[in-house]
Amino acid sequence: MSEPPSSHPVSTAGPVHLIGSGLLGASIGLALTRAGVPVTLEDASPAAAALARDVGAGDLVTPGEEGRAEVRVVVIAVPPDVTADVVLTALRRFPDAVVTDVASVKTIVLRELWEAAEAGTISPADLARYVGSHPMAGRERSGAAAADPDLFAGRPWVLVPHPGSDPAALLAVRNLAVDLAATPVRMAAEDHDRAVAAVSHVPQVMASVLAARLLDAPESALALAGQGLRDTTRIAASDPRLWAAILVGNAGPVADLLAAARDDLTRLEEALRGAAEHGPLSPGAMAAASTTVDRGNLGVSRIPGKHGGARRDYAEVEVLVPDSPGELGRLFVAVGELGVNVEDFAIEHASRQKVGLATIAVLPDAAQRLADGLHEKGWRVVGA
Ligand SMILES: NC(=O)c1ccc[n+]([C@@H]2O[C@H](COP(=O)([O-])OP(=O)(O)OC[C@H]3O[C@@H](n4cnc5c(N)ncnc54)[C@H](O)[C@@H]3O)[C@@H](O)[C@H]2O)c1
Fold first, then answer.
1. Domain ends where: 306, 332, 359?
2. What is the pLDDT of residues 249-270, one digit of tens each?
3. Which atom of ligand 1 is nearest to the CA of 86?
């Protein structure tokens, strides 16, 4: 990859050394390399490291051969269960560097580091150079092949300093987040872990449990699948090894929320059993079903909208798009010619059909103009 360095000035002082060159490590390496920051990388898997080098995420070094005196920042992007060990080794290997990790759980990592400090395995001065972090960006695919230098753009990047963290180390990790176009957010480890249990870890469990219900579904049922199922199961394709480490690493907060979800499910299940036995009008059945969906409406309305701002209510225009090359491009050109900004976009392919249903989300006052304009340009508008 030979992309020109970014024109934006960066504050991160290199060289940066990456330990773990999978999806997260290689994405960080790609972004820093593009910004002109020298990056070296290593991985427990020589093949993973070579792949990251080949996609342009940095220069390969074998442990012990890196220019350890020059390294300013070390970023550790390995699974959560081995993160604390790798942080400890890195603090010793790179005596002058700021060390951060990007693991999705923070309390267990910090606890292991404190235990090491108490046992005298590491000095308080060395621990001061560590600031944990967690970019709230990712994908359901692992490895450098899926890496993307723009993965962090516009996403929160949680900074988790501990009471002994050096302010200069915190600033260095903050600069790294900003240089990668992320928005730094400071949190305590416990608050972070409770927050990500709700917005990331329990959603992963729910998607996995839901998708697992499809294992016994006949082909004829799966052929009916639409966008609702795709939306709610997309992350069920995530890496089991990584996610097992994340879930057990954040066991308490995840278990608490699962218990609450189980209570909701039990209430609904009991009401539906009543309806199945005594008919749909059996007392309480409608209320239980409606409450379940209603509370979901309220919950989803609390998810912030585009760019992390308050959620906006968009209007949707639905258009049939022929399933042939260039048609989506033609649709976007038409929308652009009408001077309408696309706030969100989705396309649904009904199986065995030669068309897709494109849903274009726009500001409410632009919806009718878009629908009329697309109709005039010959598009089949099916809903606005
Ligand atoms: N995938 C996501 O969406 C996401 C998002 C935010 C944060 N994270 C966190 O980032 C970290 C990395 O996740 P990923 O998605 O890049 O995983 P990944 O599987 O793509 O990459 C992890 C890499 O770490 C290497 N590795 C494992 N143990 C190692 C060790 N002891 N020393 C050196 N290398 C080692 C593996 O060989 C692998 O190449 C995890 O802690 C994860 O919780 C992931």
1. 306
2. 999 999 999 999 999 999 999 9
3. 31
